[in-house]
Design a protein that fits this description.
Strand content: 15-25%
CATH architecture: Alpha-Beta Barrel
Strand order of the largest sheet: 1-2-3-4-7-8-9-12
Number of strands: 12
Number of helices: 10
CATH superfamily: Divalent-metal-dependent TIM barrel enzymes
Radius of gyration: 19 Å
CATH topology: TIM Barrel
CATH class: Alpha Beta
Oligomer: single chain
């Protein structure tokens, strides 16, 4: 830890140092706490980092100090799980105010969350739960996204889900649901290719045809991660290297949408930094081949 505190000694947290970033490019990495020290000491060649916004919502303390130190070195995005956009609860305005304060402080290129719900009656599950694809559920999440964008004063990116069940009451396909949300809120899509592959395999739909329905101008970021094969279904753990079918689907996505900024996610059993960097370099090589 000595190196980390030496690094921080020359930083004034009351003075903004970093430039405004309106967009990002290349293959970035999800920032994980076990990698802070390595990043501060070596300053690896990574084009951008994604920070889990829910980890930095406190008004002070070491987490926000670290976040500002990272932001001093790299462009960042903020990705969260706490908006609970699909919940029947009203949008948590206290949470949104804290998120806006964080965004004003760090000036991320993008802010994103999920097409899912995580809370009901103020109780949080700490898991991303699926929605029935109905007009009522679609209107609810459209209203929430619109309010969230009004509070943040900026366009939100929403991420497509990974799922393990379908609702009998669903009135449309997932891609119809997602496209309707994008169109009626004017928000953007964070396309998680691993999530799409997992859901397609679990429910028996064609992932490539799904991609072909998406509006090209709405895809602003891509996520890649690893799943676990449970035999009867795929489990989205974000805890493995990217599997070959996901790499192939990623190449299909780039052929449709062009060179989209891409992030390597790893949430469980986080390995050494160089493992993530290796996955990032694989994604960058594919990005570089896009014409």
């Amino acid at each position: 830890m000595v190196g980390f505190f030496v690094f921080l000694c020359g930083i004034s947290m009351t003075e903004k140092r970093f430039p405004t970033v309106s967009n990002i490019a290349g293959a970035g990495l999800g920032l994980r706490s076990s990698h802070y020290q390595h990043i501060f000491e070596t300053k690896p060649d990574v084009p951008w980092f994604e920070l889990l916004s829910d980890n930095y919502l406190g008004e002070g303390g070491l987490p926000i100090v670290r976040a500002e130190a990272i932001r001093d070195l790299y462009p960042i995005t903020l990705h969260g799980v706490g908006m609970s956009l699909g919940s029947a609860d009203a949008l948590n305005t206290e949470y949104m105010a804290r998120l806006k304060s964080l965004a004003d402080r760090l000036e991320p290129a993008y802010i994103s969350d999920h097409i899912a719900w995580v809370s009901i009656e103020g109780q949080y599950t700490h898991d991303l739960l699926p929605l029935p694809y109905t007009l009522e559920a679609q209107k609810n999440i459209i209203d929430k996204i619109s309010k969230a964008q009004d509070i943040l004063g900026r366009t939100l990116l929403v991420e497509n889900p990974s799922s393990y069940l379908m609702f009998n009451c669903s009135e449309m396909s997932e891609e119809e649901f997602v496209n309707g949300v994008l169109e009626q809120t004017d928000c953007q899509l964070l396309l998680d290719v691993n999530n799409l592959y997992v859901s397609a395999q679990n429910h028996g739909f064609n992932a490539e045809k799904y991609l072909e329905t998406l509006p090209k101008n709405r895809i602003k970021e891509i996520h890649l991660a690893g799943y676990e094969d449970k035999g009867k279904y795929l489990f989205d753990t974000h805890g493995y290297t990217v599997h070959d079918p996901v790499w192939k689907l990623y190449q299909k996505a780039l052929s449709l949408f062009g060179s989209i900024p891409t992030l390597i996610e790893w949430d469980t059993d986080v390995p050494d930094f160089d493992v993530l960097l290796g996955e990032s370099k694989k994604a960058q090589k594919i990005l570089d081949e896009v014409t």
